[in-house]
Please model this.
Amino acid sequence: MPYTVRIASLPVIQPRHGSAALLDHLAKRVRLRAESVIAPLGLRPRHLVALPVLRDGGGSTQQALSTTLQIDGTNLVGLLNELEADKLIERRRSSKDRRRHIVELTPAGAKRLAEAEFALATVEDDVLGRLDDEQRETLYRLLQQATGADGVECTPAVDAG
Model:
């Protein structure tokens, strides 16, 4: 139930329970544990933003990936350089438009991503262990709603050339 406080003579309605501090604490716990389980796989959290999008979308143009991930072009190039150096992705010029790059997940990238997702499932079990399956699903839906995300979508890479 909200309550009212006065700040500088103006009434401000405050929620009885603020979630920001709890979300921040939970995020830190997940981040620290996640980093520790993916580091042995040669991955960083930022890699796990791009790889699932490429897997789920079957590849993407570099520009569409930048838009989807909300990463500026310079930072995306750095991220893709790291992934490409480990042979987790491939970039090639579009045969239809030589100015565009097509980015695709390699079989090695798909395998590494699967290993990371398995490791991250153990992190979720550890951090969210006090929630049952239904509560976890509710939490997931609420977080999606709060972020305005029904899932990350990317324009597929169409290159019939």
